[in-house]
Amino acid sequence: MSTFILLTLTGLGLAALYFLVASGLSLVFGLADVLNFAHGLFLSVGAYATWWAAGHLPGAGPTGFGFVLAAAFGVVAGAAVAALVELVLIRPLYSRTIEQVLVTVGLSLAGVALLQATWGADPRPFPRPEWTRGVTGIGGANIPNASLLLVLAAAAVLTLLLLFLRFTRVGLVIRAGVENREMVTALGIDVRKAFTLVFAIGGAAAALAGALGGVYLGSVSPAQGGSLLIFAFIVVVIGGMGSVVGSAYAAVAVGLLQQFVNYYGTAGLGDICVVALLAIVLLVRPQGIAGRAVTA
Q1: Which chain regions cross the lipid bilayer (predicted)?
Q2: Residues 193 and 5 sit within 8 Å (Cβ to Cβ)
Q3: pTM reported for the whole predicted model
């Protein structure tokens, strides 16, 4: 029983990490119809900005409020880079899908190269608060505190996103734009004004994933964002493009499946099963768990 609890809660921690990356990715695609392959770069920016701030920013550090300040710096950095990318590179390319893909893929590769040139390609130890290095006993199982932190952070982000989307004017415009962008534009609302904000929110969530992912993994590396982006895309497709709640459901399914299969099976089998789950969803329900079917 203790093994089941351990695998479940650590699987949820992994799911929380996937959700933090996928939530912004889902919103960006749902509203702006942009497949942003540079989204992993925002995660890496958040991770490295947090790592740098913990050692150089006055008041920041690896413990207590100091780490909160360092993580906040990383989140702001990720949001700022995401907004800049939308304004400079993405905005001129709306409705030009091929160019969007080429630009975001190129930006992702260039970003990784820049990080490698600045801080090297080798993983660097990440400053972790002492509490996250320990474990908490739950049901006879010793659960890493880093996993619990990720679960709490993902739950908070999901709650804040839902409140923002449902109870603010900008959130209502975003939701309406996701459902039918042409109709919203016909009503005289410039949806593009919300695009930059959505990119910034997505960048902030990805940067938070980078900061907490560094705590979870214990290190930070330039390619870290790209590897997590693969599973984030899978989560977005399974959950339904543009659905934050669907991404949450899909992240839980992917994280638990990966954790249990990797434990009881051979190494890497969990990743194969995740891809198999993606294929099944695409065959049975192409619009995803929470997506809407496209009718002629």
Answers
A1: 65-89, 101-121, 141-165, 194-217, 229-256, 263-284
A2: no
A3: 0.90
